[in-house]
Write a structure and sequence with these properties.
4 helices, Ribosomal Protein S5, domain 2, 34% helix, 128 residues, alpha+beta, 5-stranded mixed beta sheet
Length: 128
């Protein structure tokens, strides 16, 4: 089997996923999964599509992660893994779609406006 690659994005995080047959190793930026994501919930988020399709331990995953924070990176990686699994087997599509793993979350940070401390927050108004 050749290398399957896919792309996942969330906020400003970009995950380039390379999937090959193997023993289930997940390497992110040349580090292990539990070293890169020390929080258990983020490790769970990353592995959700693998457990849903019951292929955990069958594929080695190498990932280049860039930008964003840890949560955005984990969710970008989940999307990338889901898209890579789809390229391997199109029968996974109904499961992955029902779980919402194929939808790219479009929410981005709103820009800061001039004359305000943040995007929506205003400085305190003084009538006099």
């Amino acid at each position: 089997m050749e290398v399957i690659n896919a792309l996942g994005r969330r906020k400003t995080a970009v995950a380039r996923v390379y999937l090959t047959e193997g023993k289930g190793n997940i390497t992110i930026n040349k580090r292990e999964l539990n070293e890169y994501f020390p929080v258990g919930t983020l490790q769970y988020v990353v592995q959700q599509p693998l457990h849903l399709c019951e292929v955990a331990g069958q594929y080695d995953i190498k990932v280049n992660l860039d930008g964003g924070g840890l949560t955005g990176q984990a969710e970008a990686l989940r999307l990338g893994i889901s898209r890579a699994l789809l390229k391997i087997n199109a029968d996974f599509r109904p499961k992955l779609k029902a779980a919402g793993f194929l939808t790219r979350d479009p929410r981005e940070v709103e820009r800061k406006k001039p004359g305000q401390p943040k995007a929506r927050k205003r400085f305190q108004f003084s009538k006099r």
